[in-house]
TrEMBL record:
Protein name: PD-(D/E)XK nuclease superfamily protein
Pfam families (UniProt xref): PDDEXK_10
Organism: Candidatus Kentrum sp. SD
Alphabetical list of InterPro entries matching this protein: PDDEXK_10
Length: 102
């Protein structure tokens, strides 16, 4: 994907993502004014999908900006995680080369 991309590191002092205060990391892409938030992992299970969604919502509240796309890239996405991702509106791809660039 071309555009501006960066890793966002923030501290969640209230513990909204993990249930306790901790550092949050997200991959952020800004392309043509669209905010795309990505997670790249070797494998994704159901809890990881929920955690990604909580991280996205944390970012949105902190920056007062809604993500246009949420994307998980992983060659191994558990079938239960895939169902959760579909319900949450998360795009899922096995490889970063498979992500459609719009």
């Amino acid at each position: 994907m071309s555009g501006h991309d960066a890793s966002e590191y923030a501290f969640d002092a209230e513990g909204t993502v993990f249930g306790r205060p901790d550092q949050i990391e997200l991959d952020i892409i800004i392309k043509n004014g669209s905010l795309i938030i990505c997670e790249l992992k070797s494998s994704v299970d159901k809890p990881a999908m929920y955690t990604f969604e909580r991280k996205v919502r944390f970012y949105e509240r902190r920056h007062r900006r809604q993500a246009n796309r949420m994307i998980v890239v992983s060659p191994m996405i558990d079938h239960r995680a895939r169902r959760v991702g579909e319900k949450l509106g998360i795009e899922m791809y096995p490889d970063s080369l498979d992500v459609p660039v719009t």
